Amino acid sequence: MLPQSPVLALFFMAVAGLAVAIQAPLNSALGRSIESSVAAAAVSFGVGFVALVLLVALSGDSAAFGRAALAPRWLLLGGLLGAFFVWASLWSVPVLGVLTTTAALILGQMVGSMVLDYIGAFGIAARDLSWTRLTAALLVGTGVILSRF
């Protein structure tokens, strides 16, 4: 198991952000290649599914799949949200470009995250809605506008 290090978490999220920037145009190109954005999203999810199943098997935690059957059903909505994200990003790249698509994604994540932090959703610690957080989202919103126009 990896140590719970803020530096390591920041590194992983920066790399994940890079991956999202690369994933969207890759999936968009796949959609054009097979002439279906929805099928491209499904293929992308299928490849990711296989990779994750292999990782779980290699980590020796296959029993977790059985425990997943006991989880509340509403927790499975994360998979639907992920599927929507993959499809929406690959569909949006040809319309907006990679930069604006990513900036809009980050803006949506920030606004949603502020709300989730404020209400303490899903068992996370509640955090105040501060002017600095609102300003950060406003600056990203300005970036979305500047990246497009």
Please give the structural blueprint.
Blueprint: H1 6-34, H2 37-59, H3 63-68, H4 77-96, H5 98-119, H6 131-148
Helix pairs in contact: 1-2, 1-4, 2-4, 4-5, 5-6
Low-confidence stretches: none
Report the structural category.
mainly alpha
Largest sheet: none
Number of helices: 6
> What is the alpha-carbon Rg in Å?
18 Å
Give the mean pLDDT. Answer: 93
Overall 3D shape: globular
How many angstroms does the end-to-end distance come to?
45 Å
Order of helices and strands: HHHHHH
The percent of residues in helical segments reads over 70%
The number of distinct β-strands equals 0
Describe this structure in words.
- The protein has 149 residues and is mainly alpha-helical.
- It has one domain (6-148).
- It is 79% helix and 0% strand.
- The protein has helices at residues 6-34, 37-59, 63-68, 77-96, 98-119, 131-148.
- α5 runs antiparallel to α6 (131-148).
- 12% of the residues are buried.
- The model has no long low-confidence stretch (mean pLDDT 93).
